[in-house]
Design a protein that fits this description.
This protein is mainly beta and about 325 residues long. The protein has helices at about 5-10, 120-125, 235-250, 280-290, 300; strands at about 30-35, 40-45, 50-60, 65-70, 80-95, 105-115, 145, 165-170, 175-180, 200-205, 210, 225-230, 255-265, 270-275, 310-315. It contains 5 helices and 15 strands. Strand 3 and strand 4 (about 65-70) form a beta hairpin.
Length: about 325
Amino acid sequence: MKLTLNNFCLTAVSMLATPALAQESTLDLDGTWESIACELRPQAGQDGIAPWYLKRSITFTPGRIDAHFTTFADPTCSAPLLELKFGGDVNVLGASEVAPGARDVDLIVNDYLTITPQMEGFAGFLNSAEVGSCGAERWSVGAEQDVFESGCSVMGVAANAPTTEYEVLHVSAGHLYFGARPVDGQPLAAPDDRPTALQMPLRRLEGGMTQKVGAEDLRVPKHVEIVLFEQADGADPADVRAFFETITQKMNQNDTLLYRTVGQGEDGTWLCVNYWSSRPDMETLNAQAQSWTEEFAAMGELVKSSSFRLTSYDTGL
């Protein structure tokens, strides 16, 4: 296939099929992720292991996490019990052995930790704590308090004590997998506690560069294209990413490009990957893209046309 500026972006972009090229050096966490269903967690307590049910919404920005967990009293996640919100730092470490492309990640809660009781019984449970040891005020349903400074004795939260969870994270096909929780309900409080398996994933809501044409589209890609290129001298990486966001919106009008993403490596080289429903579908859309002159107008100023390196694969799936 002849590679031109008009079809270059269409012949690349999503989750890299060869981890050695990209997933060993980067993890596409940025964006907002949410639970795809009601989740079950083992929780250690005074009376042994108890089930907790929850839904999660997590936003990652470079070096940071902001999370919102809602726990429920029932397995259908219809009766909210409490809401937990926390924020802090994210340190992405080396490759994990849990899954190809997975990384060891330290999640550090060192900014805020808020609790909002959603049931009278749970508000009463929080009020059973010694005064000043779980928030500054008495608890009531729907009232949020930050307990990072005070701690919360009845929930085992120490005062003014940043905590670290030693996690494993894996991004695949627009989904984010955390490590599976210990069956005894204990926290991931030490490097040796890192999970050895993955749990139910979160789906990406917004942000990042991996997007699916349909929100529930879980089709298996049958053809993959990978493109490496260099940005033009003086080009701003932010402009390169903005360009790809524009192309992504155009591509999402078609249902044959299943997943796409883009990333810049430590050496400055850019990577784009496309996962397609089939090779003929790819060729059809590439032909249509020859007329997208408005969308590709900025291409020549952002990349070096002589730097393109293209490979293409059938997945055999």
